[in-house]
Every structure is written in C-alpha cells, then in structure tokens.
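Data deposition worksheet. Section B asks for the primary sequence of the deposited chain exactly as it was used as input, without tags or linkers unless they were present during the calculation. Section C holds the resulting structure in token form. Section D is free text for depositor observations; keep each observation to a single sentence. Incomplete worksheets are returned to the depositor.
Section A, Depositor: J.P.
Section B:
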Amino acid sequence: MNALRMLLVPVFLLLTTVLVATAHAKTDPLVGELQATYESLDSFEAKFKQTLKNTATGEEEERSGMFFFKKPELIRWENLKPEEELLVVGKDVVWDYFKDEQVVYKYTVDKVLESKTMIRFISGQARLDQDFYIKRETSPLAGEAKSKLIKLNLVPKEPETQLVQAYVWVDPDTKLLKRILLQDFYGNENEMSFEDIDLNPVLPPELFMFAPPPDAEVFDDTKKQ
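Section C:
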C-alpha cells in the first residue's frame, strides 16, 4: 500500500490541517484560534509519522519523513521510510516521484487539491469552520486521558467517498495541529502526527522545484486535461 499514491487515487484519498482559512468558527473558539494561528504563518516544516490502515485487507503501513509548506500552496513531502518518495506541489504542476521504481507522475495542482485529502488539509484548502460540522470530544479514549491535546470531531458538510469522518488533535498552548486522522467511505484510515515543528523557516524556492531523473519513466496526467 503506497501512501502518496493513496493521496492521488480516488479509492484511497485520505489525510489533514489548515492554513489559509478566512472565516472564524462560531461554535468553538478553539477552531477560530487554530485557524488564526495558521493564517499568520508564511511557512513551516515538520517531521511526520503516518499510519495507513486498509480495512478490507487488514494491511497497515507506517511511514515517516519531512514536510515543508510555503504560502500560498507550495508543498514538499519527503517520505524517507520505509521507502523514499517525493511529492512536490509547485506553482503550476505536481510531481510525484518513486525513487525505487524510478517512476514519476505529473499532475495539475487543481487535481491534487480538489478533494478533501491530507494534502488539502495541510495546504490550507480545507476550511474547518466552513467545510465541517465540528464537535469537541469530552471523553478521551484509553491512552488519551493523560494527553493535554484537545480532540475535535469533524463531519464533512458535503461527504465524499474519500472523506466521511475526520479527527484533529490541537495543542491548546500553541494552537497547532499535532495529529490528524481521516477515514474514507470504506473505513480505511490515514493518520498523521507532527513533531519538531519549525514555524516560519526560510525555505528556498528550489525546494519546491523538481526535474525528473533522465532514467525515470514519466506518466504525464496533465495531458488529459
């Protein structure tokens, strides 16, 4: 099961975060504070850990790497373990590179951000207060009782096959997302947590550029437009 492909294939599109929202929540002040925090950021980088669960097969995969974001919607997603993958969302196109297979997929930016995927959350395209019905969880599950993180239950106002339920865990001190869980129509789960978050680092433009290696096979989806 390939995590970044799951972001781009309809059956397995899953994942979460906020950055460019404009309206503030009326039901829970925390949501407005959370969005205000991300609105104030020009960039950030963080280490991530990701767990993908396929309900039908019982298959589970753990991944880890680095994530970089720069406004308005530049993204670099470096998966380091268990295999190296690179997803670059640039100004005009998206590159998805699988090093071991020497395969590159090229997409339009709109196609990647049009659905409620993890990329959509992290890039700020998902507006929590406008796209979801939000409820604060008051009864933590086993293992969460000692955590200071606040858990929010998100139900999409317009559910899609790739997202029917989401949960986010917010640090009440920093007003940052620390953990995200997305569930699709089939019960598959995509969970991500962030560590070592660096706010407003200087990220060079070339970090969000990519040129396919000469020996890589390129599948250009942009020509289907």
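Section D:
The first strand starts at residue 43 and ends at 53.
The mean pLDDT is 79.
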